């Protein structure tokens, strides 16, 4: 059953071997490795270092290849504090933190209208499949930083840039603003994309049109989404009482959908293999980039938690799918791969509490109502001025933005009230965070203070008026069987700490245990490819083992 989803994989190596040889590479100085012709960036959504280490000994596929042959940083970090998918992805190929990418969170709220704004909202665009999709019209418009794809297009106009994901925010953040193709999964359609004004859906979807047709044919047969429960995964099954309901943690789960099954990532890998084969990435006249964001671990972690049989099967099947990808990449000379995550995650509170974490729990679902009541009484307001999204609280007006200094006064009062709440570790106003000096560029990411972490996520006009941190083990999700049970988004290391692995064919594996940051990935890749980059990146080039090129010794050079 699992192999049936990977129709593009078996013939790929033969197709690539038969492809025309690449144009002659530029002559490199003696002792220096050739620049890569293909950069592949893999981001596994909600794949924290905890999960990586938990299953590392069992990896026999692509994750095993990367962990065994790659330059492995098991202690990579998303340095910022608001650890969500959109901001996390925005750091990987830009080399700067979310306070500079402009991506403060997955969503933010317009203070004048109270309307929610998606992180990659682009009202002028359309979706290729029609309709509004999951998040409305999207595009890279809200990104304020350039990224590796943009740098490639500037230096190599004939280079190709593609990205594919289970989520729009995974693909768009990796692709940047000048991609040749940006695709993500849409239930009932296949892989879709956004259309700028004047663009035709058929033209933009052409690279995945054949793939989509094949997927639709397979879907009509209603194949199984989950494999039988066995082995180490079977031992993880159990029943849990959550919010008065019973959650049966087993495989297959009661919610059967592609986007919360291992098939989501298997399809995404199949799309990546299709792009490699049909676009002949790595065999063109310039440098090519393929971004792959795998969303299944995040979808499954939210719905079922991270320590059950659902996640166990997901990780093992992800490893197998990546094995097919890595086998294909070994056939493409001059390939450089990096794998990381946009954030980590945590298990649901009830299972944590049963397994030795007595402080694990959930945020009081009545908290915002209580805060609104206190603020209305104190400031004599006739409306509720607070809207919340997880640990973000916005001060909104009654049809118009609240004037200063009233907004700032309310925010300060709310922060003070939150600091007295059980389960709250800290609370800051946006004004406090914007006044916080940026963490030193050379400080180890695990030593960055709590306020400084959250400040690296804070964007004027987009970030919340009050941002608070729950104590470790506390979840902002109320929890309901059939809904979100667990998640991420905190400034603690289980949400910030992620693996970072660099791999090229034939290299010798190497373990590097000291902390590095996801913002270090882009300058490292750019240096290996000989690309000039912006001079003011937050990240620094990492010196990789041969055959990758070493970093320049002088700060301020091309790969600063």
Structural summary, described in words:
- The protein has 560 residues and is of the alpha/beta class.
- Helix content is 32%, strand content 17%.
- It is built from 19 helices and 22 strands.
- The strands form 6 sheets. Strands 1, 2, 6, 7, 8, 12, 13, 20, 21 and 22 form a 10-stranded mixed sheet that branches. A 4-stranded antiparallel sheet has the order 15-16-18-17. The protein has a two-stranded antiparallel sheet with strand order 3-4.
- α3 (62-69) crosses α12.
- The longest helix is centred in the middle third of the chain and has 21 residues, at 309-329.
- The radius of gyration is 23 Å and the shape is globular.
- It starts with 11 loop residues before the first helix and ends in a 31-residue tail after the last helix.
- 54% of the residues are buried.
Summary of the model, kept short:
With 560 residues, this protein is α/β, with parallel strands linked by helices.
Summarize this structure as a short list of keywords or feature phrases.
19 helices; globular; alpha/beta; 4-stranded antiparallel β-sheet; 10-stranded mixed β-sheet; 560 residues; disordered N terminus; disordered C terminus
Question: What's the SSE blueprint?
Answer:
Elements: H1 12-18, E1 38-44, H2 49-55, H3 62-69, E2 71-77, H4 85-92, H5 98-101, E3 107-109, E4 116-118, E5 126-127, H6 148-155, E6 161-165, H7 168-175, E7 181-186, E8 190-192, E9 194-195, H8 201-220, H9 231-234, E10 238-242, E11 245-249, H10 263-278, E12 288-294, H11 296-304, H12 309-329, E13 335-340, H13 349-354, E14 361-362, H14 367-379, E15 386-389, E16 392-395, H15 406-419, E17 424-429, H16 430-434, H17 450-455, E18 466-470, E19 474-475, H18 493-496, E20 497-503, E21 510-511, E22 516-517, H19 521-529
Parallel strand pairs: 1-12, 1-13, 2-21, 2-22, 6-7, 6-12, 14-19
Antiparallel strand pairs: 2-20, 3-4, 5-9, 7-8, 10-11, 13-20, 15-16, 16-18, 17-18
């Amino acid at each position: 059953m699992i192999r049936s989803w990977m129709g593009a994989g078996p013939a790929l190596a033969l197709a690539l071997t038969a492809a025309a040889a690449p144009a002659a590479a530029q002559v490199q100085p003696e002792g220096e490795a050739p620049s890569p012709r293909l950069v592949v960036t893999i981001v596994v959504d909600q794949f924290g270092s905890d999960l990586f280490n938990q299953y590392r000994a069992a990896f026999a596929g692509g994750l095993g290849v990367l962990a065994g042959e790659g330059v492995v940083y098991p202690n990579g970090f998303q340095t910022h504090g608001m650890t969500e998918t959109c901001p996390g992805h925005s750091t990987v190929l830009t080399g700067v933190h979310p306070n500079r990418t402009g991506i403060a969170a997955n969503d933010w709220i317009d203070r004048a209208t109270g309307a929610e704004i998606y992180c990659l909202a682009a009202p002028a665009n359309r979706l290729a499949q029609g309709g509004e999709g999951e998040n409305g019209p999207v595009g890279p418009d809200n990104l304020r930083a350039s990224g590796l794809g943009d740098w490639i297009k500037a230096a190599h106009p004939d280079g190709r840039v593609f990205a594919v994901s289970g989520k729009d925010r995974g693909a768009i953040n990796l692709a940047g603003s000048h991609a040749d193709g940006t695709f993500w999964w849409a239930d009932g359609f296949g892989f879709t994309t956004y259309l700028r004004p004047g663009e035709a859906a058929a033209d933009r979807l052409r690279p995945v049109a054949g793939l989509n047709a094949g997927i639709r044919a397979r879907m009509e047969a209603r194949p199984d989404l989950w494999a039988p429960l066995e082995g180490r995964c079977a031992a993880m099954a159990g029943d849990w009482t959550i919010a008065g309901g019973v959650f049966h943690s087993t495989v297959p789960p009661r919610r059967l959908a592609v986007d919360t099954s291992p098939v989501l990532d298997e399809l995404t890998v199949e799309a990546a293999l299709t792009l490699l084969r049909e676009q002949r990435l790595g065999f063109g006249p310039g440098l090519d980039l393929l971004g792959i964001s795998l969303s299944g671990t995040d979808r499954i972690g939210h719905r079922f938690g991270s320590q059950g049989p659902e996640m166990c099967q997901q990780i093992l099947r992800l490893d197998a799918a990546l094995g097919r990808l890595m086998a294909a990449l070994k056939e493409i000379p001059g390939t450089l791969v990096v794998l990381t995550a946009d954030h980590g995650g945590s298990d649901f509170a009830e299972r944590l509490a049963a397994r030795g974490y007595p402080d694990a729990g959930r945020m009081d679902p009545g908290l915002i109502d209580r805060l609104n009541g206190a603020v209305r009484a104190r400031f004599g307001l006739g409306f509720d001025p607070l809207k919340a999204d997880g640990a973000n609280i916005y001060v909104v007006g009654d049809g118009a933005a609240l004037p200063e200094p009233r907004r700032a006064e309310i925010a300060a009062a709310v922060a003070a009230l939150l600091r007295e709440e059980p389960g709250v570790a800290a609370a800051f106003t946006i004004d406090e965070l914007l006044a916080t000096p940026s963490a030193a560029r050379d400080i180890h990411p695990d030593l960055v203070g709590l306020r400084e972490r959250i400040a690296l996520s804070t964007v004027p006009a987009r970030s919340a008026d009050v941002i608070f941190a729950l104590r470790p083990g506390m979840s902002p999700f109320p929890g309901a069987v059939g809904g979100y049970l667990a998640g991420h988004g905190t400034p603690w290391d289980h949400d910030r700490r992620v693996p970072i692995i660099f791999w090229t064919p034939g290299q010798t594996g190497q373990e590097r245990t000291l902390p590095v940051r996801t913002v270090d990935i882009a300058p490292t890749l750019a240096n290996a490819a000989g690309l000039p980059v912006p001079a003011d990146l937050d990240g620094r080039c990492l010196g990789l083992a041969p055959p990758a090129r070493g970093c320049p010794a002088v700060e301020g050079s091309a790969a600063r």
